[in-house]
Amino acid sequence: GIHWLVRPQAKGKAGLLRAARAQWMPPKRQEDSGGSSGSGRATRSSKRSVSEREAQPAPKRPRSDKGKSKQRSMDTTSERADEPAGDAPRRGNEAAASSSGGGSSHEPSAAQQRAEARQAALEAAEREALEMLDESSARARAGAPSWGGPSHALQGLLRKLGAGLDDLLPSASSHGRLKTILAGLKGPDESMQLASLTELCEVLSIGTEESMSSLSVDVFTPLLISLLRQEHNPDMMLLASRALCHLMDAIPSSSAAIVHFDGVPLFCERLLSIEYIDLAEQALHALEKLSQEHPLAVLRAGGMLAVLQYVDFFAMGVQRRAVATAANMCRGLPVECAHLVADSVPLLSNLLSHHDQKLLENVCLAFARLAEAFSYSAPQLEMLAAQGLLPNVLRLVGGMASPGQSDAPVAVSDATYTMLLRMLATLCHGSASLCKQLLQLDASSTLHDVLSADATASQGSGFAAAISRPHDQLYQVLALAHELLPPLPKGSPFSAGAARLLAPKRRSKRNPEGEAAPVADSSAGERTPTEREQALLDQPELVELYASRLFALFMHVHSGAVNASVRSKSLSCMAKVLHFYPAAGLRDMVRSHAIAAFLAPLITSQEHASALLALHMAEILMTKLPAVYTDKFLREGVFDAAGRLAAQAPPPAAAGTAAATAAAAATASASATAAAVPFSSASGGASSTPSRPTPPPSAAAPPPSQAPRRTSRHGRPADADDAAASSLSSATSAASSLSS
After folding, report:
1. Are 428 and 440 spatial neighbours (Cβ–Cβ below 8 Å)?
2. How far apart are alpha carbons 210 and 546 in whole angstroms?
3. Would you say residue 419 has pLDDT above 90?
4. I need a surface site. Which of 130, 155, 555, 675 has the fewest CB within 10 A?
5. Separation in Å, CA 403 to CA 165, 219, 419, 439, 445
6. What is the largest CA-CA distance in the chain?
7. So what's the pLDDT on residue 124?
8. Could you tell me if 197 and 237 are in contact, meaning their C-beta atoms sit under 8 angstroms apart?
């Protein structure tokens, strides 16, 4: 804070101190009573200041030459010989006077002693100040807290010199300067007001919060806002708005005073009725700063429409600033203030096709913040999407698959892609009509392209590019695919147990008797379908198209992903497909997928969420396609894994022996099913191997004539299918108990 002040006079710490000493310590004149002219010249030479003696170089002493000394003595002798006789006494008196004066030069007077003492004090103070400067610099480099900095050392030196900092450092004298500026701003002369505004802008542009501590925000802010209202003088309004911007830079807390004194509506008026482009840009700059700390106040004053109405009129840099200001106003917006942005949604939607990347990312940020604010209000979400938001966002998301070949106007960053996917998932979760629109817009095709991006470049299965994406981006892709289908019924094991596993911080909800939630039938049954389920029932081709494009990708992503949340989300998407797919076409859809071999290791995995989802998918398949998957589950060991899982379940305290008996019965039924049901072919058709002979009935078993056995369409005992379903239900209950 002091180097810039004295740099024109001196360089370095020593030069700084010398300049201060020379300025604030004028030298004392020495008084001497010498009478001769020679002594007078000696007295005048001794009157020089300390700084002059240091600044001027010392005179060079002539070399001692014997020849010259002899010649000088001979000349003096000859001159004395030529003198008249009467001049000899006078020369003797002068010699005596000069000899007496020469003798007095060896004995310093009192004035010379005082000057030497003062010089020694100055040198000591200079050394002390230099040491303090060095110590302050060393502490600053070491990261230690400073004890005052260079100004403290200079102040100590100047205090010893008898001067203060008020006349040397402008920060110390800023109070008087601000008083002068304030008097000029309050004056009636507009030229004086303009000059004071210009000076205030200069002071604030180089000032900081510490240096401007003497500035009263409550005094200057209303005065500057009143000058901003003088519409007849554009220069006055421009300088006033510029001073307010500098004031917010120097003192960030002054933005609250500007809002309090109603400065925000004035800035909005300058943008809504543009007469001077410089003034409009300066008003936009001020609104950007205000929107960072007070977004709701700017929005209520009409700031959203003000910054977006004539955005195409400005240069590109100003357009980016305007959209960034709009995005700031969308942060943390209450649902009750949705009407404040309703008029600006069409303007934001038109900017989704802009060619500038930074501007486009700010538009996406604004929509993402609005969608998050209105996530639990379906009418407000539909208001956001009423101006073509969904097709534009899907076109931007399509740029993830092929940035150079998509219809997107420009490629955005990965963080923006992730944000757009999250926003689409929020829209689907909050509004059933928007979810249906996304399915009708073929969002599943866009997700297929994203998950199978660069399939031709990869040499493996074609899905390495999707798995190599950042796990948060891949999770958001799967989350959007998950929200495109309705949620599973509340009584299903997935919604009751796996949701608790995916969110372990929430406590599990159990009934008062301590038993797990009952397993509901996977079909709609007697339950009234929801709006989203009814949309799929009315248009089953939407689910069929979704499953044909994404089901295989879900299996590949699960097999190649490492992140546990990505794996669980892919399994939940598969469970939704199996649940909502029409039963008539489910057999053809799963024919080309080895689902039984895929589910068997998941049931016994250490990830409880994956085990529970695998059990739920197995139960759905056994309910919808028992003739196909009974044999496949037997061959792949699904029933055996379910029986072991059911046996591991601890008996509940309330149920006690009944639960243990049920678990044992489930295990026994699974073993009996394995012994009674023959193996089948991989296609799920008729048995290709001879059936094993059934063991003879025990004595306790009733004879066949008394207990006729039911047979299925394949000639197997019908009890086998019931036992298999019972085993899966028991294992599912056991998994729910383990998760809780």
Report:
1. no
2. 62
3. yes
4. 675
5. 63, 55, 17, 23, 16
6. 180
7. 76
8. no
